[in-house]
Every structure is written in structure tokens, then in C-alpha cells.
Amino acid sequence: MPLDLRPLTSDLRPPHCARLRQGRLIWFTFAVRRIVNFSLVYLAAYAVASYLDLQTTLLALQRPGTTEGNVYSTSGHDYVATKAWVITAAGALFIEAFLLFGALNAHRVSEHWLRHPIRSFAKFYVVFWSRRWMDRSPLHMLSFVIAFVPLRFLAAANNLMIYYYGTAPLGRLVGFVSRHTSPTAGFWLVMGTLFYLFAFACSPIAARLIVWLRSRDKSQRDL
């Protein structure tokens, strides 16, 4: 008569399997909590930087002869604050999407590029979600995300210089390039270049963020 040994064998499963599943669940919860916390902190910083940028823009425009260099926040030659805030809100959604992409794929970044984050920008690519670039693209996305905040603080400082002194380096540079190209090209050439430079500078911070997102505390390593 054959015997059904399944109940007996099911009780003989190694206890470390249950501990492993428990450890993975705790790690997943911990990782999600870190991502959510960083997202909230980033959105707060983004909101403060955006508010300062847009409010100082209104101050700078009080100077006679001053015009807004961001062609997407104007209607004709007039600055439209509501339009600027709508663009800021839409930008927050896109930036948050890039932040989540970088954070959720942090485990795929190569250790080599974490040690050399600036050097990881050596090759240009467009399709950042491609497997070919996944060893560095999450690092780059987080670098761009972080860079956006100091860039807006710089814009706010530039606006204050215009308000107090009537001129500022960014305004002169955008105006110079615009006269030789077009207002749209002038804005993108100057601000786009600055954005990339800020991303390069912020990449070591992004690398440290990825290490933090991938790390475990002592209690989790014991599981």
C-alpha cells in the first residue's frame, strides 16, 4: 500500500527558506520606503526652487526693458505667470517619472560607473531604457533629476541680480546667443548646456544615492 509522504516532506523544508522569503519581503518594504521618502524630499526641494525662480522672475521683470528669456512662459513679449506654473507642474510629473525609473533600476547600475560617475557620461545615447545602457542610465536619470534643483536656484539668483543691478550673466549669455540664432535656440543652447554641466557635477551625489538605495541595515543583513 503506497504511503502519502507529502505532509511529512512539507514539514521537512529547510527553515532558512522561510527566513529567506521573510528577508526579501522586509528588504522590498524597506527599499520602497526609501524611494518614497526620497521622492517626497525631492518634490519639496523642487517646489521651493521653482517658487523662488518664478517669484524672482516677477521681481526682475519690474526693471524697465527686462524681458523673460524662457520663451515657453511668454505670450508675445509678455510674461504669463500662470503658464509658467503649469509648465512647472507638468515638469514635476516628468521629473518624478525619471526619478522613479532611476530608483527602481538602481540595482542594475554597474559598480564601475558608481566609482566613476562623471566618466559614465562619455557615451551619448537616447533610448535610456535600453538594456545596452541600463548599467549607467539609472545613474544618469538621477543625476539629471538632482541637477534640476540647483539649476532653478541659479536661475533665481540670476533674477535677483537683474532686479538689483539691471543685468546678470545668464541673461546676457541667453541674449547674446539669441541674437545670433533665435530666442528658442538661445534659451536651449544656454540652459541645456548648463543643465548637462550640473548633471555631471551632481552625478557623484546620484552615485551615493544609489548606494544608499541598494544598502541594507544590519538587521536586514542578518536575515
H and E order: HHEEHHHHHH
**How large a portion of the residues is in β-strands, by DSSP E?**
under 5%
Task: State the share of residues found in helices, binned by percent.
Answer: over 70%
From the spread of the alpha carbons, the general shape counts as elongated
| Spatial order of the strands forming the largest sheet | 1-2
The strand count comes to 2
Terminal Cα separation, in Å?
43 Å
Question: Which residue ranges are poorly predicted, with pLDDT under 50 across at least 5 consecutive positions?
Answer: 217-223
Radius of gyration: 24 Å
Let me know the average pLDDT: 85
**What structural category arises from helix and sheet content?**
mainly alpha
Largest sheet geometry? 2 strands, antiparallel
Number of helical elements? 8
Topology (elements, then pairings):
Elements: H1 6-10, H2 15-60, E1 74-75, E2 78-79, H3 81-104, H4 111-115, H5 137-165, H6 169-180, H7 183-214, H8 218-221
Antiparallel strand pairs: 1-2
Helix pairs in contact: 2-3, 2-5, 3-5, 5-7, 6-7
